[in-house]
Amino acid sequence: MDAFLWRALLGGIGVALVAGPLGCFIVWRRMAYFGDTLAHSALLGVALGFLFNLKWTPHVELTLNTLLMFSTLGVCIVIALLLVILQSQKRLATDTLLGILAHTALSLGLIALAFLQGEGLRIDLYAYLFGDLLAITPIDIYWIYGGGGFILFALFFIWQPLLSLTINEELAQVEGVPVIWMRLLFMLMVALVIAIAMKIVGILLITSMLIIPPATARRFARTPEQMAIWASLLGCIAVAMGLYLSWHWDTPTGPSIVVAASLLFTLTFFLPLDFIIKKCLGYK
After folding, report:
1. Is residue 282 part of a domain?
2. pLDDT tens, 97-132?
3. Most buried residue, 33, 53, 61, 279, by CB count within 10 Å?
4. How far is CA 176 from the centre of its chain?
5. Is-contact 212 32, C-beta < 8 A?
6. Could you give the CA distance from residue 28 to residue 155 in angstroms, rounded to a whole number?
7. pLDDT 10s digits, 207-230
8. Containing structural domain, residue 142
9. What is the mean pLDDT of residues 165-180?
10. Averaged over 257-263, what is the pLDDT?
11. Are the C-beta atoms of 17 and 155 separated by less than 8 Å?
12. Cα angle 177, 183, 189; round to 5
């Protein structure tokens, strides 16, 4: 197998391992629209990254990919903080606020990219919208596993408080869980996943990797921990299937991974896979 395929597989698996457990909380807390909001705002981060690269990086030792990841992460963090602040008011519902933030950030990103392209800078917008997994570099691998390892480490320590918050926010607050800080930390972890996974499946598709594998894993799990493990495993299978489709049929890699994940989700509704797997694992 060619080296770039190995890098693509490693990078995709790294994202799937992190997106699975984190995506479980998105499914449980019904925050799919929040993931979309952060993903759409990532385009503004891409535009700012190109702007910094054009104006300031001749004097700073940063690669373009690293700069884009930091700028995307910064914009996602700002959007997450704005949402936490705006949620304190009661005049607008959360989904309305998410819609305003998502479309505003997306539009600002498109306008900024249009200005940059007007200055003669050529930007492959398709690669950022739908991913370019086959162009992943060893530096990207380091960022994916470094950032992903940090997220899993943090999630391990806040798993129980975050789970209590997900089950009943009022009861968790009575038990002493710092609700606002837990909510903010979770949002920041989602922002980091989007920043490091942007090159894998793209801005418009990253939320699908946070939602589809956990939704598929729901049928096979009896505990929250089992659902997180199954979500990571199914995400890895979807990455391998998507790469196979992309390599043999010359299809876009990011969309191919999402289609593979959707296929696994669909099969669980029409085939008794949960019964087979439970039998294989010794469930009753």
Report:
1. no
2. 888 888 898 899 888 888 887 666 777 777 788 887
3. 53
4. 29
5. no
6. 15
7. 899 999 999 998 888 899 999 999
8. 3-207
9. 86
10. 94
11. no
12. 125
Residue 239 counted as domain residue: no
- What is the arithmetic mean of pLDDT over 72-89? 83
Domain assignment present for 127: yes
Confidence of residue 281 (pLDDT cuts 50, 70, 90): low
**CA separation for the pair 11, 94 (Å, rounded):** 33
8 A C-beta contact, residue 147 and residue 185:
no
Place of tokens 């490693």: 10
Question: Where do runs of H (alpha helix) occur along the chain?
Answer: 3-28, 32-55, 64-86, 94-118, 125-130, 138-167, 169-174, 179-201, 206-217, 224-249, 253-270, 273-281
**At 66, is the pLDDT very low, low, confident or very high (cuts 50, 70, 90)?**
confident
For the chain, what is the domain count? 1
Closest alpha carbon to 22 in 204, 217, 203: 217
Q: Read off the pLDDT band of 148 (50, 70, 90).
A: very high
- Nearest by Cα to 45 from 69, 80, 15: 69
* Calpha distance 159→145 (Å, rounded): 20
Contact 83, 41 (CB under 8 A): no
Token pair 């990254």 is found at 49
Q: Residue 16: inside a domain, yes or no?
A: yes
d(CA 42, CA 23): 18
Helices (H), 168-252: 169-174, 179-201, 206-217, 224-249
